[in-house]
Amino acid sequence: MLNSGGSPAVVRTAGAATLLVACLALASCGGDGDGDGDGERDGAQGEVTVVYQDDTVKPQDRPAVAVIRKSRVLEQVADWVNASVALPHDLVVRVTGKVPPGVTDAVTQPDGRTVFVPPSFLTQIEEVSGKVAKTVKRPALFPEDRYNADDLTALSTQFVFGHEMGHALQRQLLLANLGLEEDAADGFASFYTVNEVGPGPSLAAALLFDELAREEGGLTLEGLSSDHPVTQQRVFTFLCYLDGSDPKRFDGPLVGAGYLPKTRAPLCPQAWSMLDYGWWTQLAPHFRTAFRDQGDEAQRHAHDRLIAETKALGKKLDEVRRAQ
Ligand SMILES: [Zn+2]
Questions:
Q1: How many domains does the chain fold into?
Q2: Does a structural domain hold residue 287?
Q3: How many Cα neighbours within 13 Å face the side chain of 71?
Q4: For residues 28-38, average pLDDT
Q5: Ligand 1 centroid to residue 238 C-alpha, Å
Q6: What percent of the chain has pLDDT over 90?
Q7: Residues 6+ positions from 145 with CB-CB distance below 8 Å
């Protein structure tokens, strides 16, 4: 929990927040694994585009869509992928009310070529973010002038869209997963936002998911049997990767302030290093020619850091285990 202790309020509603988690759990997960990562590396010309289909947006969803559009958070993710990765196919991100049956959340189609972002989903994020801004004490690390519904919505949506982009990359490039695809999708959201944006999206997503976990209440069989980690667990993983990316900077405001437990924190620098090296390594065969030098350098750096952090963890392991 982010709001300085206390157990989550067990207030289960059938409201927006519940839908949000259910759909992240179901609808965004893709289907048959039929991505064909067979694009020629240098000849691959796929581009990510973001399309706002305004005529499909209901009046009640226009404010949230306007917040996301103005923030350009979706375009930032798209631009990074376009500059770095040669996709075998185009990827169209549709902010649209015209979605396949049953879609209420951001979803990536199984072939990784379309992401749907329903306007009502953005309104749900805005509602939960508004509640967070009003009821949850601001973590000191989060800038005061951005602790409002609109900025929290934009930042957490960037993280959530990073998750969908993780699915799209996995499907289009046929990336080899060694764990759950949903974990890898969350991992790409952390990898991209921590490296390219800063702590804002991870923090906003942690606040959003923490609020959702509170509204979900206790663990259920449905939650435990999901292909996603349970919601509260995702909060701590978002924070762990952020902390591990720069413990000198984040240990104080995240661990010292009690948001990330002291039992988890010592594992986070090595965990982040493994994630960072993992994504650079997965993407390396697909780097765009113009990005190759920069990407290879980032991968080398991540490799060296992983070796160093693994050694460092080995040295402090006895101490870490005693504390757990
Ligand atoms: Zn997903």
A1: 1
A2: yes
A3: 23
A4: 40
A5: 15
A6: 81
A7: none
